[in-house]
Design a protein that fits this description.
The chain is mostly helical and about 250 residues long. It has eleven helices and no strands.
């Protein structure tokens, strides 16, 4: 797995964190809260920051749990992960991720008769109902984290990179703190815009919201495809060598 580290590593973690910062839970929902919130700019910004803090802590705890499980597995079975048979499986998975990315593209979804913005509209309704009550905001953040965890391919890729870097759990946790801060940073910056500009920032926030709703699915599909390509590039050589008889486990 050294190739994966060489290809991604710390820069890969930053890029994946930036991808995660454009998700429904970390960008679109905070924008909805900033646009529909009532009670003054500072109060709206503060409640949205509460939402961001909760979802950030949720992802941090989830990441620590995943990393705590991955590190012992890497230590015990790391030699098996480098085998050509496993490389072949990973190469196939990488190809499947690339294929999946094309199917997830909003244009492809629309061609199949689907609505790529349906999820965003559902979350808009939930965010509107929760915008004025801190307890509901906490529940909304946890719900968004749990639901998005089912499709957290970039985050899982980041966990794989962290485990492959050979960091311990303590060091890995510190890196995860930075990762989660990057995830919520765009939303936090928009909270600052709302607090400083007040109602004058509504037009800007609404434009950013409309753009994010239209592009969040596209950004995610691109991320899945890029992860797939990286996996293929770092596993196809040993896999092909084994298939052709050039490598023996």
């Amino acid at each position: 797995m050294d190739g994966l580290m060489d290809a991604a590593g710390p820069l890969g973690l930053v890029l994946l964190a930036l991808v995660d910062s454009t998700s429904m839970g970390t960008l679109v929902i905070p924008l909805i809260l900033l646009v529909v919130g009532e009670g003054g700019a500072l109060r709206v910004a503060g409640r949205t920051l509460l939402y961001l803090a909760v979802i950030g802590v949720f992802y941090l705890l989830l990441g620590v749990g995943l990393l705590a499980g991955l590190l012992p597995l890497i230590e015990s079975f790391g030699h098996l992960l480098a085998s050509p048979q496993v490389m072949l499986v990973l190469a196939v998975l990488g190809v499947l991720l690339v294929v999946l990315s094309f199917r997830m593209d909003p244009k492809a979804v629309a061609k199949r008769g689907g609505d790529p913005e349906a999820s965003a509209r559902r979350w808009t309704g939930r965010a509107r109902r929760a915008s004025g009550r801190p307890t509901l905001l906490i529940g909304l953040a946890l719900a968004a984290g749990v639901i998005e965890a089912a499709s957290m391919i970039p985050y899982l890729a980041a966990m794989g990179i962290l485990a492959d870097m050979g960091v311990g759990l303590a060091h890995g946790t510190l890196i995860l703190v930075g990762y989660c801060l990057v995830m919520i940073m765009p939303g936090a910056v928009l909270c600052g815009v709302r607090a400083v500009l007040g109602d004058r920032g509504d037009a800007v926030l609404e434009r950013v919201h409309d753009w994010s709703v239209k592009n969040v699915s596209s950004a995610f599909s691109w991320a899945v495809g890029i992860i797939g390509v990286i996996v293929v590039l770092n596993t196809i050589g040993p896999a092909l060598a084994w298939l052709s008889g050039g490598a023996v486990s």
